[in-house]
Amino acid sequence: MTRVNDTFNPSRVGYLFRLEALRGWRNILIISGSFLAVSLFISVIMGYFGGTFDHEATFSTLLFIGGIIYTSRVFSSFYRREWNVSTLMLPASLLEKWLTQLLLSTLGWVVFSLVTYLLFSLASWGLNLLLWQNRIPLFLPGAGTGELILSYFVSQSLFFLGSAVFRKAAFFKTLLSSVGVMVALGLLMLLFLRIIFWEEMSGLLQEGEEFWISLNLDESRLQGPAEVWEVLGKVFYYGLLPLFCWFTALVRLKEVEVNHGV
Amino acid sequence: MIEIRDLNFRYGRRPLFNGLSLNLEPGIHGLLGKNGAGKSSLLKIISGLLFARQGEIRVMGQNPARRTPSLLSDIFFLPEEFTLPAFTADSYVSFHAPFYPRFSREEFDAHMREFQLEGDRKLSQLSHGQKKKFLLAFGMASGSRILMLDEPTNGLDIPSKSQFRRLISSSLTEDRCILISTHQVRDVENLIDPIIIVEDGKIIFQHSLEAIGRGIHIRQYGAEPRETETLYAEKGLGGWFGLAAGADAEGSGVDLELLFNGVIKDAEKINSLIAGGADRD
Fold first, then answer.
1. Same domain, B40 and B131
2. Model-level pTM greater than 0.90?
């Protein structure tokens, strides 16, 4: 008798990929198709007036907004009463279910966005040329796109975790929580500065050049540490933060299985 | 195939099972109980969808709470309420069947024909009864050795109930355990054996039809029988019908509704009569 690997089996991940793609493709196509149809209309109007088209902004909108809305829903079937039996009883490990959703909402979504946007860009270019003889630029992914994709992974990881944590309205709850956490961190930072520079600061919010002059900072001495901090910041932002969110989502799903089940 | 020992389970502060033990071997087991007795919860615990804080559960030698793919592919659970995706039946099968290594497409097609269902129809457009028949056809063809069906005949029309009985009895193999939880005892009469009754957090009755027939029988009375004459009696069409001690010499079979009500009234007495019947043999 063949021994079944109960933790990870690439074939099962493949089957899950197919299944999830079939479940989600209609909604994804409707949402992204509507967005790109509106964008195409705008590009044609812009072309008529001889203007150009901001591909970077439009692509970012598709990548980020579409991606985080999609990501916010990836674990909804774990919570919805009518779906969770079929989701939990599907013969695949939790790791495989988690990994499938992670790959689909990161690499899958990026590839889908790039391909559809390239097609859109080509259609927009052709249409403008045909209608108004206006050559609007084509979308050419470059280094900027790479950075955009990295930033998308960071945002995606927050909403991925949100989808695992919140039973309902994961998108809005994650958005509100993220804003809440950022405000709280900002206030903590201000408080920290106030404590360190208690002699120089007269209130929590300090404005004006006098304050900075009063700190008597030697910029040349700060140059080295600033670079180190930047690298550390990038490692944390692009590396540790997404990894933490993705892994915490897995832990949270394990808890969902155990505590809520159905 | 399924072993449960000293299971304790509670919903918040409300206890549901208190020291429940159960052992199931291949066969078509009927799980009966009053509303809220915990039939569906028991099925979910066996499937690993609910987790007991105390007690031991082994399904095919594994702990279902671990929810391993090998065990999940051996359990098919048809819940009372479910939703099916907007796939056609054929797409559903091609996308779900690979998760069940012993799935038989031929068997599935035969069940679909039996239920008069078409593979190219969208599942979301089917009636609840048709959806249930589709899932039954899938579950039977899945090759899973444990099938748990929660109120499987709810929503089925009269011909479908007969088809359901035929399908279940034909799908029983020597290594398959089918557990049917139901209120509709008439729908599963002559199908389920043994009968399990859950009450007050425990299994109060678990006997095969053969054992039941050796210990008690159904008797018809001209008038309302006295307490000493019957274990339990109900007025029906054509007189009073009751459970009486002694073997079922005429082989008239078991009226599940009567048996259930009798067991709920005095399980201890009925159990001792059945045990006595077995001892006499």
1. yes
2. no
Tell me how far CA of residue A135 lies from CA of A45, A57, B207, in angstroms: 13, 19, 83
Using a CB–CB cutoff of 8 Å, tell me whether B34 touches chain A.
no
Token pair recorded at residue A253: 């799903």
Q: Is B245 found in the same domain as B173?
A: no
Beta-carbon contacts of residue A87 (< 8 Å; ≥ 6 apart): A77, A78, A97
User: Does residue B251 share a domain with residue B164?
Assistant: no
Residue linked to tokens 């493709």: A25
| Model pLDDT for residues B105-159, shown as the tens digit of each residue | 999 999 999 999 998 899 989 998 999 999 999 999 999 999 999 999 988 889 8
Same domain, B124 and B37: yes
Joined together, the tokens standing for residue A112 give 């889908």
Q: Looking at chain B, which residue has its C-alpha nearest residue A97?
A: B69
Section A214-227 average pLDDT:
71
B154 and B218 co-located in one domain = no
Q: In this structure, are B97 and B24 located in the same domain?
A: yes
Q: Which helix (H) or strand (E) holds B257?
A: helix B256-280
Residues A58 and B123: beta-carbon distance below 8 Å: no
B164 to chain A, minimum CA–CA distance in Å? 22
CA atoms within 13 A on the CB side of B124: 5
Condensed to tens digits (0 to 9), the pLDDT of residues B4-27 reads: 999 999 888 888 998 999 999 999
User: Tokens at residue A93, please?
Assistant: 């490990």
CB B182 within 8 A of CB B33: no
For residue A20, give Cα distances in angstroms to A77, A80, B51, B92, B173.
11, 16, 27, 12, 33
pLDDT at A85 over 90: no
pLDDT at A82: 76
Interface contact B19, partner A, CB < 8 A: no
Domain extent, residue B164, equals 2-205
Whether B172 and B240 share a structural domain: no
Backbone angles phi, psi at B55, to 5 degrees: 105, 170
Q: Which of residues 92-151 of A touch B (CB under 8 A)?
A: 92-94, 96
Instruction: Please say which residue of B205, B234, B260 terminates a domain.
Output: B205
Q: CA–CA separation, B18 vs B201, rounded Å? A: 5
**Amino acid (one-letter) located at B61:** G
CATH number at residue B41: 3.40.50.300
Residue A6 has pLDDT above 50, yes or no: yes
> Whole-angstrom distance between the N-terminal and C-terminal Cα of chain B?
27
pLDDT higher at B53 or A38: A38
